[in-house]
Specification:
The complex is a heterotrimer of chains A (225), B (250) and C (225).
Chain A (H helix, E strand, L loop, with lengths): L2 H41 L5 H13 L3 H11 L9 H27 L2 H9 L4 H31 L11 H12 L2 H35 L8
Chain B lengths: L2 E10 L8 E9 L3 E5 L6 H8 L7 E6 L2 E3 L6 H7 E4 L11 H11 L5 H14 L15 H13 L5 E5 L7 H16 L4 E4 L3 H7 L2 E6 L2 E7 H6 L4 H8 L9
Helix pairs in contact in B: 3-4, 3-5, 5-6
Chain C lengths: L13 H34 L4 H16 L2 H15 L6 H27 L2 H9 L4 H31 L11 H11 L7 H32 L1
Helix pairs in contact in C: 1-4, 1-6, 1-7, 2-4, 3-4, 4-6, 5-6, 6-8, 7-8
The chains are: A mainly alpha (225), B alpha/beta (250), C mainly alpha (225).
Amino acid sequence: MDLEFMEAHLPLYIEAAVLTLRIAAAGILLAFLTGLITSIIKYLKIPVLMQIVNAYIELSRNTPLLIQLFFLYFGLPKLGVVLSSESCAIIGLAFLGGSYMSEAFRSGLDNVAEIQTQSGLSLGFTRSQIFRHITLPQAVSTSVPLFCANIIFLIKETSVFSAVALADLMFVAKDLIGIYYKTDEALFMLVSAYLVILLPISVIASFVERKVRYAGFGDTSTVSG
Amino acid sequence: MNEILQVKHLKKSYENNEPVLKDIDFSLQKGEVVVIVGPSGCGKSTFLRCLNLLEPIDEGSIILNGETIDRKDKNVHQHRQKIGMVFQSYELFPHLSIMKNILLAPVKVQKRNRKEAEKEAEVLLERVGLSDKKDAFPRQLSGGQKQRVAIVRALIMHPEVLLLDEITAALDPEMVREVLQVVLKLAEDGMTMAIVTHEMEFAKAVADRVIFMDQGVIVEENRTKNFFAYPQTERAKQFLNTFHYEALEI
Amino acid sequence: MQDLGIQVLFQGRNFIRLWEGLWVTLRIAVIAMGLSVLLGFLLGMLMTIQNRTVRCITRLYLETVRILPQLVLLFLVYFGAAKHLGLNISGEAAAIIVFTFWGTAEMGDLVRGALIATPKHQYESAGGLGMNRWQTYFYVIIPQTIRRLLPPAVNLLTRMIKTTSLVVLIGVVEVVKVGKQIIDASRYQTPTAALWIYGVIFIMYFIVCYPFSRLSLWLEKKYKN
């Protein structure tokens, strides 16, 4: 392998990685908000909005991100909606991730037993206080493992952004292969870049998961009785 | 008469089914302890849940301190604060420590000073013998301990009436006593309570009055001693007999 | 005449060509899925063996496949193989290799999960009824395993179909490529073709994936009891 070549082109990869991460962060944040709002709509069974949310979730879960991106990037401009590569990537990721986050969050909400609400009512809480202080915190805690899995899944999905002309890691790698035919070096750096991004995140995710599950609900190894 | 809680002609049914409660009349005096017994499915738990306005009722009225209350009232939450309830399955909030479980309602609902409420919580925890558990989480407690915390959590709201719905039914036998002793002590201190239970010996010890329900109606109502010694109705006799075990003659 | 972009679909064989294009990716998905099921069963059984070395190797395989984006794996095989084996492997072949490699790992993990979820006393009680080892497997264990396995396996198939959309990025002529050809050909008569074509491709993917995700849910509910 050509170390000099790799060193020379390292900045390109770093730049691309930073871009990928920045877009991933924005997209995941939006996905999280979308998931939160849509799951609350489903939980409260708000008419009309609930049907819209259901349709959105099915559409988002049953189509590939790549096709969603193509539609946003090449299709929408014909309606006069011109989006930059970056906005397309962020919106696409939020559209895809929103439904995954929504499902994760809803499973958390569904896991909180109805009688917890009644227990809150019997103490004189209003429905919205119960949601805020009792249901929501429990739902968030129990959904954390799924959130983490979704975050990793979404970061991996960012690899298709080059398809809408975003200069991400795949884009750089393909470029280097095309221009210099340094296939080994380009691919090696590509894999390394993804590992550098994804390994720490998955380690942190499993740490957070354990932390929340055990500390949050006090489920330590020394359970008594 | 010093009636805290009154129920008149209460009727309730779940969708399209045989009514669960058929025309119930009931009253509870200040400082009185009433135990409601009856076979499973007789409607006694539903009745308690109606009292706390957790279940919609079809007909009749529930009167608290002379005021008719309804779950559609705007101030239903204030009504519920005056009626505490403890459930069979404890229903502590799993994401909060014991102390936070107890403080959540007084601080958020009654807007009480946190320090002051915490002091009271400590006194109450001391009384049920759980001072050392205030920083533990519900999952670290035994069933009996959790149920005692649930009682404290209801008490700190200073309810005028306490409803206990089969609070020992999910407990291992050796934990039943520690919970029931707490309840006996409350009765001694003059707490007004309506209790649904299957523990007949406990009912004998704690109740001023016993109500026997079957198939959605109050079949018999009597002073505790009389009820257990001289049940008036055939159904009550049969019911009490199911708690006796004698060697069958073969 | 007022131009309706959607008529571009009905010119010539355009609509049929799009479905033919989608079939190219579906064929890859089906072949890769078939191979993954076969190999996944072997891997899954291998993973239940109480042997440290076997466990380490299978675990390493699983984690490696899972942490890298599928597109990176595609690049590795498509560009890497071209260079090192000197043979110009077709995009389709590269895709089948990669998706089988990925699908086998996922399927193997599902099989492992289904196998270890069958409680030990099921083996014991079957033995207690006088069944021999093969009878126990055939009548007791395998039916239970399949019930647990079927819903997530169908789910994996939808993921496979969605993921195979990536093959357009390594030059396979499939639905998106066909779509681009149609858009280019009708650039002057139908300037809004891109909107319609990408919209239709989006819906086509949905039409294919949606029944499978319903099926997976239905199976899950059915086998719950």
